[in-house]
Amino acid sequence: MNSRWKSDLGSFLRERAGKRIAVVGIGNTLRGDDGAGSLLAQRLLARGVRSVFDGGSAPENHAAGAAAMRPDTVLLVDAARFGGEAGEARLMGSGEICGGTLSTHGASLALFARYLAAQCGCEVAFLGIQPGDTAVASAVSISVETTLHELEELFLEFF
Questions:
Q1: pLDDT digits (tens, 9 = 90+) for 133-157
Q2: What does each C-alpha distance from 93 to 44, 48, 61, 123, 158 come to in angstroms?
């Protein structure tokens, strides 16, 4: 599996050291790997990271909370179909999600990204995690679970 994402995300976070970064995890935890972003947010919140929002399957409900933080950067984390192996992650700019084709949550995520950028005057980036099984009532795959653990540890180094 491609592990370049660890280096890319580490560089992304280091370049923004000392700035306000909000993380919005997105996903439906009832659909296996589709819940990846939401699960990551839940884990980070449980570990005391305060600038994280669990957007679940309706991240727009957390727009006001994220905007009130006045972040310099908002990082959206969601399952995304970009042709990688299950569990592979990819860091992308907001321009790559505005077409609404990557995220498993489609156009609503692109609108959410544009709204946050306009409200906060902030940069919006996207961390996509390639899902495997997103069937209703499926469990999170081992490959996505491994990536979630690695992401949790990486984020804890910076928050």
A1: 999 999 999 999 999 999 999 999 9
A2: 22, 27, 22, 9, 20
φ, ψ for residue 20, nearest 5 deg: -80, 120
Question: Using one digit for the tens of pLDDT, what is the confidence trace for 45-99?
Answer: 999 999 999 999 999 889 899 999 999 999 999 999 999 999 999 999 877 765 5
Strands of 21-26's sheet in order across: 52-56, 21-26, 73-79, 123-129, 89-93
- Selected from 3.40.50.300, 3.20.20.140, 3.40.190.10, 3.40.50.1450, the CATH number assigned to the domain covering 4-158 reads 3.40.50.1450
Closest CA to 37 of 51, 23, 16: 23
- pTM over the 0.85 mark: yes
DSSP 8-state code for residue 16: T
d(CA 122, CA 152): 23
